[in-house]
Specification:
Layout lengths: L16 H30 L8 H24 L4 H28 L8 H8 L2 H14 L12 H17 L7 H35 L3 H24 L2 H4 L2 H24 L6 H37 L5 H29 L1 H19 L3 H16 L21
Helix pairs in contact: 1-2, 1-3, 2-3, 2-10, 3-4, 3-5, 5-6, 5-7, 6-7, 7-8, 8-10, 8-11, 11-12, 12-13, 13-14
Length: 409
């Protein structure tokens, strides 16, 4: 069952709700200050004549990081006894420290030497935020949404993830190493990072286990994260496809930032339970329009290539006719393709609702033509049983009221 939370429950570590909320927003504010410092360094560095530092991409990446501390602050202040919000605060702080390390080191390389204090040491210390965030990553999946493990069977995985994260932090501490020791540390770091990614994968499987065991509110919460996971997978597939050669780095950064924002919103809605039961509609529409967009893009570019190849073969030159023809085909296919995709998704993923809708459509047609009240009663009982699946169905027909001024028999 889902952990019931209230704003008046005890905070984490026995803190009062007011103190826990103050601490949560203080950590959020500190993280946003770190992000502000990174942005200032990025803006100062963008004014330099040297262009090898991708300042614009770094600035866009900052937008994707803002949501993590804000999400953590919202959850931790509203649900202080749920560890999940505090995990997001730690995860967001780690990411922002890592970003500040990159901005600090890049600024020190671009500007005049000596403009920043101890750039190598400070950037190395700040870079510990990366291993810190990676250490929290498995628990963001493993403890969703209650802040507790799915069951005691997952305790070994939690211990492995904790020990791996602590080891990774120790291996990344800034100190001088001889070449032999440095090589061994690098090898061990690779092993530990690989182990952490294994725990992340297993933690993702825990969400599947939770979903099959959950019901009610908790199942709806998991659907929100499933929606964000689908979008993340589709974004990753797009990066690995031919689109990677078509879109610029700035566009990819914008898309990645949008994907991160969707994740933050999905987790926030799931935990805080705002309009929770609209998720089925959101998932349905997302699947339909993402599939429709992918199909139309493939048809558009495929049509252009096909027409251009045909024209090149027949006339020896290319023409803008390919673009015009592909655009017209896309416009003509939009609605028919959308209906087919909607029907396929309803049959494949929403079979019970699809069958219920078809049953109601058939009953509506029967209702218009049926005049036998006894047959209509049996048909209505059958339809209610199939669509709503109640434990028992009964139908009472109210007798006609005696008309005013007439004697009852």
């Amino acid at each position: 069952m889902t952990e019931e939370t209230t704003e008046h429950g005890p905070g984490i570590g026995g803190l009062s709700p007011r103190v826990a909320a103050w601490l949560a927003w203080s950590l959020c504010a500190a993280t946003l200050v770190v992000l502000t410092i990174s942005l200032v360094l990025i803006l100062l560095g963008s004014s330099t004549p040297r262009g090898e530092i991708p300042w614009r991409n770094q600035a866009i990446s900052l937008v994707g990081l803002i949501g993590a501390p804000i999400l953590g602050g919202l959850i931790a202040s509203r649900r202080p006894h749920n560890r999940y919000g505090w995990l997001w605060l730690g995860f967001g702080l780690g990411l922002t420290l890592q970003q500040l390390a990159a901005s600090y080191a890049a600024y020190a390389r671009v500007m005049e030497p000596g403009s920043l204090v101890a750039p190598r040491t400070i950037s190395h210390v700040l870079a510990l935020g990366g291993p810190l965030a990676l250490s929290f990553a498995p628990f963001l999946l493993l403890l969703f949404p209650t802040g507790r493990l799915p069951s005691r069977r997952w305790r070994p995985l939690a211990w492995i993830a904790s020990m791996s994260g602590a080891t990774l932090l120790l291996l990344n501490l800034p100190y001088d190493r001889p070449d032999t020791v440095g090589g061994a540390v690098t090898t061990l770091t690779i092993v530990v990072v690989s182990l952490i990614f294994v725990t992340i994968f297993l933690s993702a499987l825990s969400l599947v286990v939770r979903y099959h065991r959950a019901s009610g509110v908790e199942r709806q919460q998991l659907k929100w994260v499933a929606l964000a996971a689908v979008l993340t997978i589709m974004f990753t597939i797009a990066q690995l496809s031919w689109l990677d050669q078509v879109l610029s780095d700035v566009v990819w950064n914008l898309l990645e930032t949008a994907q991160q924002i969707v994740l933050y919103v999905a987790v926030g809605v799931a935990i805080l339970r705002y309009r929770l039961y609209d998720i089925d509609v959101v998932i349905n529409r997302t699947l339909v329009y993402l599939s429709l967009t992918a199909a139309l893009v493939a048809l558009y570019f495929g049509g252009i290539v096909l027409v251009q190849t045909t024209l090149r073969t027949l006339t020896g030159q290319e023409s803008s006719l390919a673009v015009v023809a592909s655009t017209l085909v896309i416009a003509a296919l939009f609605n028919p393709l959308r209906r087919r995709i909607q029907s396929f998704i309803d049959r494949r993923f929403y079979r019970r609702k699809y069958d219920a809708r078809k049953t109601l459509e058939t009953f509506s047609a029967t209702l218009r033509d049926e005049t036998d009240l006894r047959a209509l009663k049996g048909e209505l009982t059958r339809v209610v049983g199939e669509t709503m699946q109640p434990a028992h169905v009964s139908l009472w027909l109210r007798p006609d009221a005696t008309r005013k001024g007439e004697q009852a028999d």
